[in-house]
Amino acid sequence: MTADGADDKQDDRRYLTTTFWFRNPCLRASFEKALRGIGALSKGPYIEGRPAFRRTVALTDLCAELLGRTPDPGFLHALDGQGGRRLLFSHQEAAIRAVFGGGNVLVATGTGSGKTEAFLYPILLSLYKEFLEGRQPGTDPGVRALILYPMNALANDQKERLRDIAMRLKESGSRFRFTFGEYVGSTPEDKREADEDSLHALEKAREYGELVYREDMRKAPPDILLTNYSMLEYLLIRPKDSTLFDNGAASHWQFIVMDEAHQYTGIRGTEMGMLIRRLKQRLREGGREGDFTCIATSATIVSNDGKLQAVADFASVLFGETFSEKRVILGESAPVGGTPRVELSAEDYGRLRGAGKADLLDFARDKGLEVDPRADIPALLGSILLSDSRTLRLIDALKEPVLVADLARSLFGEAEDDKATSEALEQQIDVLCKARRPSGEPLVTLRYHHFLRALEGAYVSFCPTLSVSLERGSKGEGARFELAICQECGQEFIVGQIRDGRLQEAIRDPSSDEFGVSYFLPLGPPEYKGLSVENAVTVDAPSDAPSGERADCATVHPGRPCAGHSSGKRRGESADACTDDEEATMLDPSHVLCAVCGRIVEANMDLDCSHGHFLKVSLQDSDEDSPDELRRCPVCGRKGRDLLKR
Question: Which CA distances in Å does 184 have to 181, 217, 258?
Fold first, then answer.
């Protein structure tokens, strides 16, 4: 994606113009123009920078402190892939200490901040402690930790992470092992029920301690159970799953983890709270005597006002356990550092973008900057950028999401136009993403946000020009009417409901007594069915209408293409052609509509307004069983449900 998101916007427009195809070229051109309008489809892109989180203690040192001895190297390597040398974020350390000590915590840090490690590491440390105290792999089975996810995609991601840890455990020669299993709707009952394409992968996963079949989890419940809200309800009520809870199996349960806890608000939160209380009661009845350790994570539950006690109260109600304000753990950003000594130009970022080490050393010397000649390319880039006032302003601006276009103009106001500012920012960001501190940490982690809106409809106005808008309401000129188009031929229809003598927005609530939608086919001169040009709406075609078609489109088209336009069907000839009598009925004018105020009367009556912009339309019969649907297009003859797109 480019810095301004132009590629994504173009793809969105292409999809919509293909899906909503108007046979009327003037409407088609106007619709495309509306889609190109600022903010029509999307808002953004925004860019946000998250400075690196403050790091504190190495994983190996924290594990040794909590366990009272240093774990074996294989276990440490399995956790972080670096032999335990990885420095933990401050919020990870705080959470691990609290959870390992039996406290309830809510980890409220941003996306990509390592919240999973904050609850997974203390769970695995607890299992490792059991191992040190004499529990051998495969003995004393029972669930120790339940991890609940709001959707299976998150559970699948966690399962893959546990697979990697289990694989590293075995490959590193550690004697410690743990079991885990994902019990969701797609989990096969046994080997015979497994999909043939995935059978090999499932059998391979079993070698590392994963329980991949339901029957295996019932026979020997895994140490870590991954599931979702709906499946947990089934587990609690199905007799065949009782081995997870009854006959002493519940005595091992300790951790209850709820990922993405912010999703459980309102009615859904009440249901989840009741489910957790049922679970705990079932476990108490099954032999659990000690306290539960409850953990929640969320990237969005804490707002900028930082009302931590309210968040703690939310978690307390959700779990039915006590959460204190001190156990709401937030992230702590590392200081950016840096001292502005130079201000680099757009050309400078272009030089840095693909520079080798020798080029970077020459660049630093030319700018009078001191750098470590032994550093690698990312570290050299980091040293240079931390001396650049423009980069430091960029990092400061990214503390909050900001529109890319606004950011580009504020940083490169000297550029000749918006395209130049966008290109300059793109080069600067590219260099920034490659730069690192001497420790290997990025200077800042960047995220783009692109907000796409669903079309709420398309609306047509007939004066002063024929045009399509994506917004309701008039701007003081002509009235705007909702549009629908035939998916087969692209014929447009005016959509609404006659109330108080005007064509107004239709009521689509089936519970309403006024539920229903009326579809009007716009008719116009010059030659069809002998209609007179008198009182027909004359409009100017959009300036960007297709060349050679502006004159033909100077009036609203009748139900069939006007002279000079193709009369072929969009997707082939219809098999349901109308008879002449049916066609006459469906295409004769039934009403006259004022294009300025929306007044509408039957065709044999006079409009009681003085605007003088009249449009003859033909009311089409909606379906008897579905009064909000038109199931036959009078132009192409196609029949079917959902024939028209609104």
Answer: 10, 12, 16
Which residues have a Cβ under 8 Å from the Cβ of 159 and sit 6 or more positions away? 180, 182, 210, 226
Give me the helix-helix angle, 404-411 and 389-397, nearest 10°.
Answer: 150
Render pLDDT for 80-93 as a digit per residue (tens, 0 to 9): 999 999 999 999 99
Cα-based distances in Å from 369 to 159, 353, 389, 391: 48, 18, 13, 15
Burial class (CB within 10 angstroms; exposed 0-12, middle 13-18, buried 19+) of 642: exposed
Q: Which amino acid is at 525?
A: P
Residue 608 has pLDDT above 50, yes or no: yes
Collapsed DSSP state (helix, strand, coil) of residue 204: helix
Q: Which residues contact 166 (CB under 8 A, 6 or more apart)?
A: 78, 177, 178, 180, 208, 209, 210
Place of tokens 């600022």: 38
- Global pTM value: 0.67
Tokens of 501: 């003598």
Burial state string for 162-196 with b = 16 or more CB within 10 A and e = fewer than 16: bbebbbbbeebebebbbbbbbbbeebbeeeeebee
Summarised one tens digit per residue, pLDDT across range 23-63 is 888 888 888 887 776 555 667 788 988 777 889 999 999 99
How do 87-89 and 459-461 pair as beta strands?
unpaired
